[in-house]
Amino acid sequence: MLTTTIRLDHQLKDRIAAVAARSGKSAHAFMLDAIAQTVEQWELDHEFSATADQRWMKILEGGKTIPWENAKAYLTARTSGENPRRPAARSPRH
Do 39 and 67 reside in the same domain of the chain? Predict the structure, then answer.
């Protein structure tokens, strides 16, 4: 395992120590968890954005969409126990 040094101001170091103690972890373990969670969230956000960009490009290249109003009405009817007709997809306007 590698060692990395980070500089913390006294106030942040004290806050980390206090929260870590309340959570039953050492300050070191608490910081590792915080870093791991931040990295994981960034990766998930990046993956989500990349997927959204790919889907948007497919729509712009001629894919079809369902207007939100139609999709919302369909989903509302489905959750009410109805068996509505699926909304028709249409080409996007440029």
Answer: no
Query: Range of 83's domain?
Result: 62-94
CB 92 within 8 A of CB 66: no
**Residues 11-40 pLDDT 10s:** 999 999 999 999 999 999 999 999 999 999
93 confidence band (pLDDT: 50, 70, 90) = low
Within-domain flag for 56: no
For residue 94, pLDDT over 70 is answered with: no
What total of structural domains would you count in the chain?
A: 2
Residues 57, 58, 59, 62, CA torsion sign: positive
Cα–Cα distance, 34 to 27 (Å, whole number): 10
